[in-house]
Amino acid sequence: MNSIITPTYAVHFNEKGYETLNKHLDKSNYSKIFILVDENTHNDCLPSFMGNIEGDYDFEIIEIEAGEINKNIGTCTQVWEVLSELDADRKSAMINLGGGVVTDLGGFVASCFKRGIDFINIPTTLLAMVDASVGGKTGVDLGPLKNQIGVINQPQMVVVVPEFLNTLNERQLQSGFAEMLKHGLIRDVKYWNTLKKVTSFDDISTLIYTSVSIKNAVVVQDPTEQHLRKILNYGHTLGHAVESYFLESQDHELLLHGEAIAVGMILEGYLSHKLTGLPKAELEDIKMTFLNRYKKVTFAKSDIDAILSLLKFDKKNSHGNINFVLLKGIGDPAIDVKVPSNLMLEAFEYYAE
Amino acid sequence: MNSIITPTYAVHFNEKGYETLNKHLDKSNYSKIFILVDENTHNDCLPSFMGNIEGDYDFEIIEIEAGEINKNIGTCTQVWEVLSELDADRKSAMINLGGGVVTDLGGFVASCFKRGIDFINIPTTLLAMVDASVGGKTGVDLGPLKNQIGVINQPQMVVVVPEFLNTLNERQLQSGFAEMLKHGLIRDVKYWNTLKKVTSFDDISTLIYTSVSIKNAVVVQDPTEQHLRKILNYGHTLGHAVESYFLESQDHELLLHGEAIAVGMILEGYLSHKLTGLPKAELEDIKMTFLNRYKKVTFAKSDIDAILSLLKFDKKNSHGNINFVLLKGIGDPAIDVKVPSNLMLEAFEYYAE
């Protein structure tokens, strides 16, 4: 599988990935290499990863607690303090081995430590492989507000090793798959139709490659999200608000990121049908596809009010307007669409039908 | 006084500065403008600043506590939370009105909020005018370790209004003057000789202009400090360690930044004499010039040990080596010089003589 190489970063796959990583470490002469893991990837992925490293380096392992709830400035400060204690310097590097929490937080920690050290992402979840680890968005949450604090900064490289997916359960895989379905919705109706038929994740490597290619093609054209890159936020405006609300609420089961944006993609599908001409049949296709894969979530009226009140913190907003990415049709997005709030309530009714 | 314009940012002076700022605010259509101040600049500088703003904007004032001790991630988190509460979005901007703490911290806060919003620096201390506010180094301290966390990111513009210096006392002015003396030492022996003779700060505008020009000429050639920019750290390797130690210590009076690097420039002058050929007469000139302006600091043996142990956190270090900027002569620096620790002890003896 060929590497995907852009002007600012490259994504490598499988054996080729390890080969490129080994060459990079060999030539970079890092003073020290820090591997950031959580307790899961420490146990499940680190041994296999270390078995594929050829050189003899001064590695230090830094473990953080797993879970979105720990993706915050407090955890960053702990990691910065450990880096200082372990004598990290500007010529040190950080390898982020984990899911989106590890790659997002690790990328931010590295980007700010002594005003920036090199980092490398080794995503271990499907979600991180197709989304979080590529594109240079680093950051952490601020209370319930997702990714409010961060910078855009590219890793030295991303290495995708689909073998790590064997450490995940079905629910985690489905969560990542939601982002892949999004890639179809915003860019490629054929890819959407292919993905809909996927029933097993055993041969997913080629699809991961397609998803990373779609994301990269978008990011390269607009790295700092001035225009085109916004399309990657389809389903995320309402999806993030749903995710934030469930993360903070004591009474609700935690929703995985993909599960939340699956809800968001149905809701924003409805808005698309009403505002940007998404045909009814395509809306129904979107709803059925997601409800076949992801358990339907029940929202009380008070839940919906709380979720909508979180929308004002969305990063795409400006001048008090909430800007949505909607669809004119599957594969054909529209950016910066303003949505009246009564339509959002209707969207939740449509979802519940 | 002409503006200093570089490819990535510009520094404007006096009335021309306000004029350019007013034009910038007029054309930028910011959704909201946040002015970051501390309690001092809130009282002493904000009224005059607001009097010079022509348009009618949606301003919000955010006040932080004054002092280096508050330049930390905790304060950043407070400001980020206030920005969120006050509905800041990606099209909002931040004006940092204050000394180095406000411009360093404010620049970092803005650079990370929703992955980066515009910011403008209005330095109100001599130190911030000639050093902190220009060059794009943003950041905060991590415990006693100065500027460990930050990013390099340029403001939209810097506006230098020397009138704000009237709000400072003699000691604060002298602190900023130490950085100007450093500009002479690393780049221009004539400028050094001019500065030595300065006895009043009444007509300092032209000298500020020269200092900003020297700093900018260096930064433009090497914005991310790979080589040339390191010369700006002359006096700062030991000076920062002295400053950090006095900041944390309960038993010592607080040293201002310029006072600490004045000590550092004498100490590193001694190292320069021993290692890079700084002539004895020039070393004596440096020592006398600084001791004439800055009160001599007394260091116990235990102080010196603690200060030297902080050196390992210096950002210029790599691979366990402490890298110094030294002088071959006044105006002629050498970078990446390794220094044996016994020489550092001798340097403190020379300082105490």
Automatic annotation (TrEMBL), chains A, B:
<keyword id="KW-0862">Zinc</keyword>
<feature type="domain" description="3-dehydroquinate synthase N-terminal">
    <location>
        <begin position="62"/>
        <end position="174"/>
    </location>
</feature>
<keyword id="KW-0456">Lyase</keyword>
<keyword id="KW-0520">NAD</keyword>
<protein>
    <recommendedName>
        <fullName>3-dehydroquinate synthase</fullName>
        <ecNumber>4.2.3.4</ecNumber>
    </recommendedName>
</protein>
<keyword id="KW-0547">Nucleotide-binding</keyword>
<dbReference type="InterPro" id="IPR016037">
    <property type="entry name" value="DHQ_synth_AroB"/>
</dbReference>
<comment type="function">
    <text>Catalyzes the conversion of 3-deoxy-D-arabino-heptulosonate 7-phosphate (DAHP) to dehydroquinate (DHQ).</text>
</comment>
<keyword id="KW-0479">Metal-binding</keyword>
<dbReference type="Pfam" id="PF01761">
    <property type="entry name" value="DHQ_synthase"/>
</dbReference>
<dbReference type="InterPro" id="IPR030960">
    <property type="entry name" value="DHQS/DOIS_N"/>
</dbReference>
<dbReference type="Pfam" id="PF24621">
    <property type="entry name" value="DHQS_C"/>
</dbReference>
<dbReference type="InterPro" id="IPR050071">
    <property type="entry name" value="Dehydroquinate_synthase"/>
</dbReference>
<dbReference type="GO" id="GO:0003856">
    <property type="term" value="F:3-dehydroquinate synthase activity"/>
</dbReference>
<feature type="domain" description="3-dehydroquinate synthase C-terminal">
    <location>
        <begin position="176"/>
        <end position="317"/>
    </location>
</feature>
<dbReference type="InterPro" id="IPR056179">
    <property type="entry name" value="DHQS_C"/>
</dbReference>
<dbReference type="InterPro" id="IPR030963">
    <property type="entry name" value="DHQ_synth_fam"/>
</dbReference>
<keyword id="KW-0170">Cobalt</keyword>
